[in-house]
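User: When convenient, might I ask for sequence and structure tokens for a protein?

AI:
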Amino acid sequence: MKIKKFLKQAGVEFKMHKHAEAYTAQEMAATEHITGDAVAKPVVVRADKEPVLCVLPASCKVDLGRLAKVLKAKKCRLAGESEIGELFPDVEVGAEPPFGEPYGLKTVVDERLAGCETIAFTAGTHKQTVRMSYADYARVARPTVADFSVHL
């Protein structure tokens, strides 16, 4: 998915920015000089056998037990790099955009991120960031909002 084209077709306002390579959401936050609380970090989990895209602040980690309850799954586990590569074949591993629907995935957003006015996220590469309002993101992504993270 070409994120710029996807967002333009959705009719939302956004800004793209190129920066030095950043391989983690927290590195990207530092490079962009923004708080990790407003950086959307996509994490793929397997809820039982179903892949789910979880989006949470870069300053948090997934609480797999709490997420299992939210998703009504017996067990949740983090997906491996090869699984993620298969689900997102058109982006760099680790730079997945926070939109599950174009990839056939359910999207769940942590309520901490839903409280942000503006969010930032990777645009499919480790060198590009997108910034947009959370309201526009939610309108496009149509996520389920839940409490499933722990602040680091």
User: Anything to note?
Assistant: The chain has one domain: 3-151.
